[in-house]
Write a structure and sequence with these properties.
With about 100 residues, the chain is mainly α. The chain has helices at about 1-30, 45-65, 75, 80-95.
Length: about 100
Amino acid sequence: MQILFRIFVLAILSLLGGLLYSLSVNVLIMTHVFPTEEVGNNFGYEMTSKAVLVWFVAIIIGFVSVFIEQKWRYVLLACPLLAPSIFALIYSLSLS
């Protein structure tokens, strides 16, 4: 029963990670972290497609946390929530 609850929490955090990613990208655009005029037209597509790959890897890492009993499993569990947004920040800062 505890494993099912952990999988449910992982699913919720994974879905919230997608929402947090879109929110963080819009905040990056509004704060002019990267100038939208200077980057290519497909910058958003490239960043989002790479962020999806990061998100999938983070879900796998989060799934590993379901079977760990130590307290540091929460760091792994939070990966699907935070990894795509952190990736977007680092990716946009590397291009500006």
